[in-house]
Amino acid sequence: KIVPYMTAPDPALRPKVGVAVLVEKDGKYLLGKRKGSHGRDTYALPGGHIEYGETPEECAKRELLEETNLTAEVMEIPKVSYTNSVFEKDHLHYITLFVKVTKYSGDLKLLEPEKCAGWEWHSPDSFPKPLFDPLAAFCAASGFKQ
Description:
Largest sheet: 8 strands, mixed
Oligomer: single chain
Number of strands: 8
Order of helices and strands: EEEEHEEEEH
Shape: globular
C-alpha cells in the first residue's frame, strides 16, 4: 500500500516524468489505443518520457514526430498542466506534463504499431473508454467533457 510522502524503498519506484501531447484539429483531439503492458487497451494522447535536458515542449515535439509523423509548430501549456498518477498494480508513479499543439504539419501516420493500435480524432465529449489514467485525470481537472 502506498503511504503518502514516503521515500521509495527502491530508486526504480521513484516518480517518472512523462509528457502528453494534446493535438487539436477542429475541436477534436488525437487519441490512440495503447498496446503496451502499462495502460494496455486504454486510450491515450501521443507522448512519452522526458529525456535528460529536454523541456516539456521539446519532449512533446520529439514524441509527436516519433509516434505520428506530425511536426508541432505552435504549442502552449494549458491551464491545467500536469497530473499525478500512481499505478499501484504496476508499481509506477508518473507526473505527466501536458502540452497543447494548436498548429502542426505533416501527414498523420502510425509509426509505433507495437505501442499503439492506431490514431483517431475524437471530440472531448465523446472520447472512447477507458481513458489512460493521466488523460482521465486531466479531463476531470480541466473540465473537458467526457
